[in-house]
Task: inverse folding
């Protein structure tokens, strides 16, 4: 079984973790002015990257803390994990989750 | 009115646990008061208010008065006490951490403790736990929140020789885990007189 490195607890078995989807989805700057369609894009639309992908994971059977990780979706290899309070900017570009079909 | 029976969740397992040999000894820990502390700012003020340091290293536990303080997260600890009632422990901890912006919650009924002792105990645990429990890695003062036989547990190492552990398991999982441990220990249990 694959070991995932929790930024707090260290390497643990994959079954102790829960997947939290794409990381760094930007919250709308002016939520009151966002259209229904743009909200739908913010809430539901995610990238389907082949390759390196920034994700959120939760060590749910351990310290129950969320963290960010960069994982390769083709090899399942974790390149790095990062605490949420880590000031270091992320290695990959934040994906554009708030896309509009109009633009 | 019906009277509540104060039976331990593992009452029915006591005979089976007593029959285990010393190399894989499993005993039920006496009931202790436990409280979860949430506290963002750990420092001298917190240590002074609580009367002891909270462990800030992940995966460790420390003696805390008569009980233990177990690291559960960067802002979360499990404190236990063998001398106080749950109400006394919760009240004392709450009074100490509330001025610092923290909180204390009584969780005495949440987990029960199993004391695991013996030379072959690590072999038993290895059947359902992926963590390296060798004393070189998991020595006295180490702790881990992990899965043991797919049940969520808090593991504490009490000895530097790797032959003395405490497993804190949720009360509703205690029977399952006791069954699992008995099954895992079967290999090291003499089944007939020879």
Result:
């Amino acid at each position: 079984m694959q070991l995932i490195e929790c930024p707090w607890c260290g390497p643990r078995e994959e079954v102790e973790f829960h997947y939290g989807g794409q990381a760094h989805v930007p919250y709308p700057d002016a939520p009151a002015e966002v259209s229904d369609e743009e909200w739908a894009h913010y809430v539901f639309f995610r990238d389907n990257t082949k390759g390196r992908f920034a994700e959120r994971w939760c060590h749910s059977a351990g310290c129950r803390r969320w963290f960010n990780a960069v994982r390769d979706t083709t090899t399942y290899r974790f390149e790095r994990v990062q605490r949420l309070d880590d000031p270091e900017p992320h290695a990959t570009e934040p994906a554009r989750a708030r896309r509009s079909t109009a633009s | 009115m019906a009277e509540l029976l104060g039976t331990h969740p593992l009452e029915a397992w006591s005979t089976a646990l007593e029959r285990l040999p010393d190399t894989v000894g499993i005993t039920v820990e006496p009931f202790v008061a436990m409280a979860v502390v949430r506290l963002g700012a750990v420092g001298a003020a917190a240590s002074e208010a609580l009367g002891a340091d909270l462990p800030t290293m992940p995966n460790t536990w420390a003696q805390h008065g008569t009980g233990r303080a177990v690291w559960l997260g960067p802002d979360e600890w499990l404190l236990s006490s063998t001398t106080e009632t749950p109400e006394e422990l919760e009240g004392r901890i709450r009074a100490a951490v509330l001025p610092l912006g923290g909180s204390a919650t009584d969780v005495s009924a949440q987990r029960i403790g199993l004391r695991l002792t013996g030379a072959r105990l690590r072999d038993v645990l290895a059947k359902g736990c992926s963590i390296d429990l060798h004393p070189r890695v998991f020595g006295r003062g180490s702790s881990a929140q992990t899965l043991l036989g797919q049940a969520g547990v808090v593991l504490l190492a009490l000895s530097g020789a790797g032959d003395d552990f405490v497993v804190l398991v949720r009360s509703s999982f205690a029977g399952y885990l006791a069954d699992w441990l008995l099954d895992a220990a079967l290999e090291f249990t003499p089944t007939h007189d020879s």
Remarks:
- The first strand of chain B starts at residue 25 and ends at 28.
- The interface with chain A takes residues 58-59, 72-74, 76, 130-131, 144-147, 152 of chain B (CB under 8 Å).
- The CA atoms of residues 69 and 79 of chain B lie 4 Å apart.
- The longest helix of chain B spans residues 171-184.
